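Sanity check. The docking grid for magnesium ion depends on where the pocket ends up, so I'm generating a full predicted complex first rather than guessing from homology. Inputs follow.
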Amino acid sequence: MTTIEDLSEGIRAYADLHPKPSNIQFQYGTAGFRTLGVLLESVVFRVGVLAALRSKKLDGKTIGVMITASHNPEQDNGVKLVDPRGEMLEAAWENHATILANAPTTDAFIEVVENLIKLTKIDLAKPANVVYARDTRPTGLTLVAAFQDGLKASGATGRNEDIKTTPVLHYLVRCINSKGTAEAYGEDSEDGYMRKLSGAFKKLVAGKKTHGLLIVDCANGVGAPAAKRLAQFLGDSLPLQLVNTSINTEGALNNACGADFVKTSQRLPPSLSGVLRAGQRACSLDGDADRLIFFYLDERNQFHLLDGDKISALVAAFIVEQVRLAGLEDTIEVGVVQTAYANGASTKYLAERLPVTCVPTGVKHLHHAAEHYSIGVYFEANGHGTVLFSPSAVAALEQRRPSTPAQQTALNHLKNLIDLINQTVGDALSDMLLVEVVLAHKSFSGIEWDALYTDLPNRLVKVVVKDRSVFKTEDAERRLVAPAGLQKKIDELVRKYDGGRAFVRPSGTEDVVRVYAEAILRPQADELAFKVAGLVYDFTGGDPVARPREFL
Ligand code: 16G
Ligand code: MG
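Predicted complex below; grid placement will be based on this.
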């Protein structure tokens, strides 16, 4: 397609097959478009056109598209775009995506496409290349077909990767675009990814003891086939027992299992009771395998969560240690990025050892902040995160001439970590191997890892309000600026609680306001959360009769 007329004609030939539902407004949010899968056909068709345009805009570089709704219920689906280096879509284009998705008719859609081409000065003569994949959801295949129509309508070349994890798709995008350059990221195939990760893992644990069988809860999602393949590559270096692998059982995806279930309900997936033994460690992936939560049962069969904060503490301390052992502490600064949801005890533990930054919720904020450190460790408490090695850190590692065998060993470890850790996005399988490396090096079981610090009791509640857009935050979402006066009331309340901390923010993914509270004692954390929720409810002029009982 080299002219606007050709493109308009192409779109006209397909767009009416995928009309926009009239009563819905779509929004490209923190995780792309996400809603009931059956409502998304028009959106994915248009994302096909958008991905083609994005590729043309970037001189034919390959753009990634992932069809997934991650940890959401099985009937939901979603779609997001991946930029050429494997990172999330540039913010300005999120806006373009929303506009394209909401054009009410084919004519209106063609008009906004033409406007976008003019506005962003796209040369339509450039090629368009797109690689795409989906998770295991039942609506995935139909949506892929609609998406392919979008590619056909715009004359783009598509590469169908079928069922893949979100992090593998990000990996592939980076590999394809960096092929043949000095920054070549790896072989552009899932097996290439498996080889890279497992190869680095084996080098990092050579001569160390891993702690027996690791149970992996695959959330009955796309992580299951990927973990199965990874287990073959790992062989004896890390025995895995995969559970919740039923990707074809209706209703099973993310149902009472997976990282989101474990983190939110703070308990063992019922499917693991009788499977997980006391002292043994296990981990849960989410529905698209970009989030990871560990846990174990103690000798009294009590459940213990090892969440993103615990992963961050374990990994950051290990990397700091290796940098020091390599004699590079003056050259490489390791820093950590968290959000307001990070447990206060984790922030204290980390801040005593290295610089810590707090940013608003959402992976893109953490990712960008982590890029400012030479080695940036970022994890959300919910288990999404990774470690970024900056070009200057990579160069420092390459140039370093070690003067002792111990320095040489630490240097090798750091270089292998670059290969082990997915540099494009949080990756449950890569993070799982990373945790296992550190545990093997430290001879830690889950119990010693958990003992790095003790979580402050905390409570998360959501409040349904009339209009969540009236809630405005500052200071990385830790304080409210609107509605006026509410923050002062929260401050007065928090002061009454020993070790109390609480904050309120509008959700980016649901029509609710979230309240987080922590305190030294469990009942106090609960009480503080509910009292703040009550304040939120009152301030939004809610009907007192309808005021939920637990907020009283
Ligand atoms: C999205 C974000 C996740 C964040 C969550 C918060 C990405 C890829 N995902 O799932 O990072 O923790 O939203 O949800 O950015 P909330 O705004 O509803 O609390
Ligand atoms: Mg996910």
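Relevant for the grid: The chain has four domains: 4-163, 190-305, 308-450, 458-551.
Also worth noting: The domain at 190-305 is CATH 3.40.120.10 (Alpha-D-Glucose-1,6-Bisphosphate; Chain A, domain 3).
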